[in-house]
Amino acid sequence: MGQQKALGFGACACASALWGCGFFFGKIALREMSVGHMVLYRFLFAVLAMLPLLRTHSPRLNQREWGVLLAASFLGVPVQFLLQFHGLSLTTVSHASLMVGMMPVLLAVGAAVWAHERMDAIGWLALAGSTSGAAMIALGRVSGGGSSLAGDLCVVASLAIALFWILANKQLMERHSPVTVTVYGQALGTAMLAAWVLLRDGAPPVAGVSWKAWAALAASGVLCTATTTLLWNWGLTQVPASQAGVLLNMEPLMGSLLGVLVLGERLGPSAWTGGGLILVSAITLTTRSKTQVREALPIP
What we know:
Elements: H1 2-19, H2 22-30, H3 35-56, H4 63-90, H5 93-99, H6 103-114, H7 121-139, H8 149-172, H9 178-201, H10 211-236, H11 241-245, H12 250-261, H13 269-288
Helix pairs in contact: 1-10, 1-12, 2-10, 3-4, 3-9, 3-10, 4-8, 4-9, 5-12, 6-7, 6-8, 6-13, 7-13, 9-10
């Protein structure tokens, strides 16, 4: 049991670190195409990587579970990612990544509400600290410009949507394989995404796209979407969501470092302070708070 839990934490940590590269790869592709086309290519590469799993894992969901999966796929793929990367197009990689640091606290709060349990005083203090940190990032100035309040708020809104996706998947995985929930959820979400993007933006560009953009799209699809979702969903079958949430801090860390070190972005003092406050709040909540979240049931 201890070894499985350690592997679960390792899977969640690896997934979070790879997710942290998503904004970086997305920013590269956004230089050559619209938000809708970039997100569509990302998920097409992801589904292509997961095609073998679609053949080997047949779904055995009942009618209610299909409804939950459809709702989660709609919100978790087209709605969440179009909103999130629209925000990225308006702000910097490092700013957007630090805003994602709110997710561990949001996840713990959502998991407590989902399980009809109460947050303790430490939990509420952590939530207040995380919210204050996000406000400092959003309202702070970035040296050289590039960030915006509207972009930061779009990223935060996408996190609330991601919260529903994570908790709905965790519920489904109490009875079904994480591979089944992942691959069919991603396939359904990609189909809905494709319908929206093709109607709104037309066919995505092919000619004129640089090899650098194709490489970024492939990496974001295979590494930052297919691999991360499979690792994260499996990890959630081994550890409670609130405990796994602290490992999401790898995402803002990786994204911010890539934005600053590779893209040359510069964060102002308030953004660094706010990011630190978010990380401290998330670590405090997931290590000191007594709020407990329901464990997943064994997969039959």
